[in-house]
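lol forgot to send this yesterday, sorry. struct tokens for the thing we talked abt
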């Protein structure tokens, strides 16, 4: 149950981090959303299943995703947690609002009926472990300020997209429709510049801009890692241990 709750918090905010005694803003905001949802529904948290907890998280955010984003906006810049330093480089409130609006208005029912596909598995935890290392590396660079802000932002972008590809591949193996939904959700939450530099696309961006597209396309989005590789070599000059 503990691992599934961790997975839930990170999934909703698109961040996977090492759990420490101090909660990140991601954990704070998500925990409050879940607690409020369960309290209002009168659920017994001791008996709730991982599936129900995950569903409750999405439903609580969809009920008031503007409030969820306001929680981030108010607290994120005040935090020195590694996950939050990473998120500060890539968080865009308008884009995250668009991601949740797309998921909540287009695909929430599909998630409810296939929620088992989002539960934590060994393959997902491998994605998280690799992403966690990337978060710590970028957060350390952010704290040291050795690289220009644009370079740090692009590093955070590529680390995030690499994780999303890993994670959505696992979801797709469980159910292709859920894999596509989560891909659209993750990529819609990225800043426009990040989607442009990596070449990823989201159906939600097109829908909310008035362009109709099918749920499952015939082509597979290809992630461009060239910039990520180049930035790795640039970072080696300043911090050789970070990317080995």
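and heres what i got for the seq, position by position
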């Amino acid at each position: 149950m503990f691992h599934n709750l961790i997975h839930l918090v990170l999934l909703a905010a698109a961040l996977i981090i090492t759990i420490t005694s101090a909660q990140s803003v991601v954990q704070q905001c998500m925990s409050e959303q879940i607690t409020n949802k369960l309290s209002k529904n009168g659920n017994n948290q001791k008996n709730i299943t991982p599936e129900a907890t995950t569903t409750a998280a999405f439903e609580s955010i969809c009920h008031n995703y503007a409030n969820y984003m306001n929680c981030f906006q108010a607290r994120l810049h005040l935090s020195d947690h590694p996950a939050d330093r990473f998120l500060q480089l890539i968080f865009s409130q308008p884009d995250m609002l668009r991601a949740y609006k797309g998921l909540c208005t287009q695909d929430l029912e599909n998630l409810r009926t296939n929620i088992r596909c989002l539960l934590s598995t060994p393959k997902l935890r491998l994605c998280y472990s690799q992403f966690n290392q990337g978060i710590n590396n970028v957060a350390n660079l952010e704290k040291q300020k050795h690289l220009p802000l644009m370079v740090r932002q692009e590093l955070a972008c590529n680390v995030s997209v690499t994780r999303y590809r890993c994670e959505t591949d696992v979801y797709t193996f469980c159910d292709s429709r859920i894999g596509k939904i989560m891909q659209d959700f993750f990529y819609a939450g990225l800043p426009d510049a990040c989607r442009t530099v990596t070449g990823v696309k989201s159906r939600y961006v097109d829908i909310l801009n008035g362009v109709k597209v099918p749920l499952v396309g015939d082509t597979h989005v290809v992630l461009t890692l060239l910039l990520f590789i180049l930035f790795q070599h640039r970072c080696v000059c300043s911090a050789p241990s970070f990317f080995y």
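The two ends are 33 Å apart (CA to CA). anyway ping me if u want another try
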